[in-house]
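hey team, just a heads up i'm posting the complex here instead of the shared drive bc the drive is being weird again. everything in one block, sequence lines first with there labels, then the predicted structure for the whole assembly after. its two chains so it's a bit long, scroll down
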Amino acid sequence: MDIFDKFSALKSRTDLVTKLGTDPFGVKFDDIENATRGRIGNRSIVLAGTNNYLGLTFDEDCMAASINAIKSHGTGTTGSRIANGSYTEHIDLEDALAKHSGMASAIVFSTGYQTNLAAIATLAGPKDVLFIDADSHACIIDGCRLSSAPTIRFRHNSPADLDKRLTRKGPIEDGTALVVIEGLYSMFGDRAPIAEFVDVCQKHGAYLYIDEAHSFGVFGPTGCGLAEEEGVLDKVDFISGTFSKSLASIGGFCLSKHKGFEITRKAMRAYMFTASPTPSNVSAARAALDKIAEKSELRANLQERAAQLHAGLTELGFDLCADPSPIIAVRRPNEIVAATEWNWLLEEGVYVNLAVPPGTPQSSSLLRISLSAAHTKDEIDIIIKAFKDMQEQSESLMAKVQAVMANG
Amino acid sequence: MPANNPTPSRTQIFDKICELLVPYNPKNHEITMLSGIVTDLEVDSTAVFDLIMGLEDFYDISIPMELVSDIKTVGELVNATRQLTQE
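-- predicted structure starts here --
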């Protein structure tokens, strides 16, 4: 028995997709030139699948903050904040996040994934009950698995269904209900009706936790996300997010309107037993937070580009999964067609994400595009033209699909 | 669930599951109590949860996620549902 035998079905599936050209889940860039351009070999690639929503990874101030932090405090923290203590950068960013959002408490984590893993697994104890959206991200599901609380799923983006399930559950003896939703869902790019979820939570006395990983910095008058845009930020108990999208770094954060959240620093295992984020990562995010606060034009640019691309692809007749947002997902008939088209787009110089089941809602196969405020109008036109050309090549692409399917 | 039958039989639950499985079983695999939901019927893990939500709504029960991960066959789902409808 080989220890890797259990992955044979996964390997067959990967091998089949790789027969179409490049492994879509193992792309190697020879260079990343700026927020919207990369290079593979001699080909310049428009990056349209990086979640670099505000394009701040190459911002001069963010880069300078990161470089200065390395010069001042070194390349790594070499341990957790519990064991090795906090750096001034950690404290400064937590203070800035709390102040910017008007929240009582802010805790930073080493990745966005660990943020939800740590916070959800710890906030929900054995007598509590978790209620999560059916389309929740893997880190939310893993946080629930790691928690000792029972987890009940409700239908995607349906406050009415949550209401029904909370009612069905009834009073929770010696415990509370914690409802977890996302602001903008990462695959389809559809928004949660947050104000309606707030109403349902208040009706049942449930706590509300919103993952704004894809919406922080992107929505809201000051960039705090969709809860702020809907005017209900002060009614949300917990907001989580990541540094690896609009905040142009790596790491994550969880904010709470409850000062009591601070005690969880001494209970969250994924916070306590991992190295804290580096001074350079934290400083880049801190500089990006200033940009989010000061430069609303970044959000305006992003919305314009999203509207431009959404209109262009709609005009071509593509089936898009949601209204315009920085995530535009194009629904394709199946995985092999999507993978063939994904390869063709990359050959033509446009990098998007291939998203396939079981990582997608409704078992969909998607060409997922994420936009950046740094994209120019011309770059959006390049993306639209690539999709148009792809449409025109559909016969030869389908012949390729049939050949691959025939050969297994 | 019919109000006059608060505790359905295993057969009734099995029939309901077969009905709910229709959209997730395009290849029309034969469904038995021993059928593996993912392994034999080829229902993907996301669709399993959609199936579960349908069952929860019909019988007005809550089937927690951690219980679902232990359920591999149709028969196990029938048993879990029957137990929850008796509580």
